[in-house]
Amino acid sequence: MVSKDHDLSVRRQCRLLSLVRSNLYYQPTGESAENLRFMAIIDKQFLDTPWYSSRQMARYMQRQGHKCGRHRVRRLMRLMRLLRHFDTPVTRSQKSCPRKHPTSGAHNSPPRGAKPRGMPFWGFAFTSPPQNQQRYVA
Predict the structure, then answer these.
(1) Helices 70-79 & 54-63 angle (0-180, nearest 10)
(2) pTM across the whole model
(3) Mean pLDDT for all residues in the chain
(4) Are 44 and 57 contacting, i.e. CB atoms less than 8 angstroms apart?
């Protein structure tokens, strides 16, 4: 596509292709060995406890002696496309709602100008057991 030996400059070739020049020179770096080790631990634990969120997974890893914070666990879980799923949907009734007064009409009517959203989606993340030398690619 873009050639340095062409008559047109690299800048002009990129402009004609609507390509940013920095993308031309970008070399993606893979995950570090430590992150790959953390990902394997997260994957193994997620098979046992698929309801763990990133906070719970970070606490589990810290209890096991790993230096891994919640934001790092969250990024790695997102990279592996692991989603927490619930056993039952979390619903809120008027009596158990701590934020609003039960006599206010805020529970029954949507905010002014809000679009109807339809039914909520309850997603499940199905994972397969780890294979030998499973590699995670971004």
Answers:
(1) 120
(2) 0.53
(3) 78
(4) no
